[in-house]
Each structure stands twice: as C-alpha cells, then as structure tokens.
Amino acid sequence: MTRSTQIDWRMKQTTRSFPILLLLVAPLLLLPLGHATAIVPSSGDFTTTVTSETISQVASIVTIDEHFSLAITGTLSGITAGTATVIVNLKTGTGVFFGMQTFTGTVLTASGTVQLSFSATFVGSNFQGQFALFGGTGGLTNLHGQGSIQGIVNVSGSYSGFVIFAPS
Alpha-carbon distance 49 to 52, whole Å? Predict the structure, then answer.
C-alpha cells in the first residue's frame, strides 16, 4: 500500500466513525434537565466540644488525639461526632490538625448522614483549612462538597464552600 492510499483509507475510517459517534452521544443531549447536578453555595457556623483527648510530647512537639462533636448551623444544620489529631510545635506556637467526622442532619431540605474530612493549620489558637463531604446516606446519599473553615481551635468557627447534589 502506498503512503497516499494509507492516508485515504484513514480519512475514510474517520469520516465513517463520526456519524457513529454522533449517534451514540446525541441521546445524552435529550436527557431531562432534572437529572442535572445542582451546585449550591454553602456557609454557616459551628461550635466545638472536645469529649476526650490523649496527649503525648516529644521535645517541643505535642500530639493530641481527640474525640469531639460539633453543632453546625447554616446550609448544613445538625451535629457531628469525630476524631482529630492535633500536632503543635511549642517553640513556634504553630501546628496542624486533621480528622474525620460523621455529620447527621439536614443540608438544604435533605436529611441523612455524610462523612466530613478536614485539615487545617493554626497559629496560636486561630485556624484556617478545608473540608470535604462524601459518602452520604438517606437523603444525602448523592451529596458531595468542599470548602474552607476558619476559627478558634476547639472553640468555634465558620465554613463556606459549596455542596453538590449529584443525580441518583
């Protein structure tokens, strides 16, 4: 086969493939808008209650493993129960914390539970960080989200971001 014959053959293959691809994709354009993903801004406040903690120290680094709960208001309205690890550098007064919690409550008008992971940095007692929502049940089965958090370590704070209700 000559080079020009190979090019002609490939062009015919591409030309024949396009209508088939169009036939496969076209039905997706006809799906009802009710199946679309809804992205909703979210914001609110929370207060923290530490229920237990274990503290260990090596030199000037302190590690705290704690169990806690949050009372959350705003777009998310409910309570959480979770665990966190806090690492503090006593020389600088800075640190990080991260953890996981289960939220039980309402997001907009849907109720259920959803997992909430978080991480943050802090200087003194002021923190800022991020969170992610995933793994919901009940009315929150298809909920995902993410955003930022800020506040005072183990006292209170605020969140802002967005939640996504994916189609079921």
Answer: 9
**Contact assessment for residue 113 and residue 141, using Cβ atoms and an 8 Å cutoff:** no
Hey, what are 24's tokens? Answer: 């496969």
Q: Closest by alpha carbon to 120, among 91, 86, 90, 146?
A: 86
Residue 37 has what DSSP assignment?
Answer: P
Which three-class secondary structure state does DSSP give residue 115? strand
Q: Is 38 helix (H, G, I), strand (E, B) or coil?
A: strand
pTM recorded for the entire structure: 0.77
The structure tokens listed for 168 are 């079921």
In this prediction, residue 59 carries a pLDDT of 97
The 10 Å Cβ neighbour count of residue 32 is 6
Share of the chain above pLDDT 90, in %: 73
Tokens 């020009």 found at: 4
What is the separation of C-alpha 109 from the centre of its chain, rounded to a whole number of angstroms?
Answer: 19
Query: What is d(CA 41, CA 13) in angstroms, rounded to the nearest whole number?
Result: 46
